[in-house]
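User: What would this chain look like folded?
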Amino acid sequence: MLKVENLHSGYGRIQALHGIDLEVGQGEIVTLIGANGAGKTTLLMTICGNPRATQGRVLLDGTDITRLPTHKIARLGLAHSPEGRRIFPRMSVLENLQMGAVVADPRHFSDDLDRVLTLFPRLQERLNQRGGTLSGGEQQMLAIGRALMSRPALLLLDEPSLGLAPLVVRHIFDLIAKINAEQKVTVFLVEQNAFHALKLAHRGYVMVNGRIALAGSGAELLANPEIRSHYLEGGVQA
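Assistant: Here's the prediction, encoded as structure tokens.
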């Protein structure tokens, strides 16, 4: 579904990605782990068209989207739930979800809203509440729900566990698995919580300094001594 070939990207003279190659197959959950500053968020943003790739290409279902504007990429079935959630804090939960549906066919809005609220019943209870007054976990649910309102075939998730309590983190990862299994949405997940991410994922990649250093199944990477040493020790298995 998603194929990234020899992708280079950055900000001005600062090169952040150095020839990234990876694939996400239809129906998979694929995770990308790595330390802060490795280039994970830049990769997701480049896939979405901002910043632009300086070299290489991004294919979505065989269509080259490398030079397309972000709104056209979204209309092709790709949604992005960004790092830090970035909901609209002054808007209500319902208004946030309406914003997510802008690129979708309005005829499906009611069905899509019901589907998201069934997945996140907490949002149903807070539908008229301002997004900025929600808890961190509820805001993350809202960010994912907003992305799902665009009816994506591929969902990009950037650090969905960031800043959340361990119990909430487990709940969010359970919901990601449910989205993939029940709603048939392919997921590309960027995470620093390597234990949960690799346990959930069918396959994974490890990024170091803007390059892919390792790749394998989630189970293989979990068992890798180097991965365990660098990413799984020190209490990150919450």
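Residues 1-77+153-238 form a domain with the Rossmann fold fold (CATH 3.40.50.300). If you want, I can go into more detail on any region.
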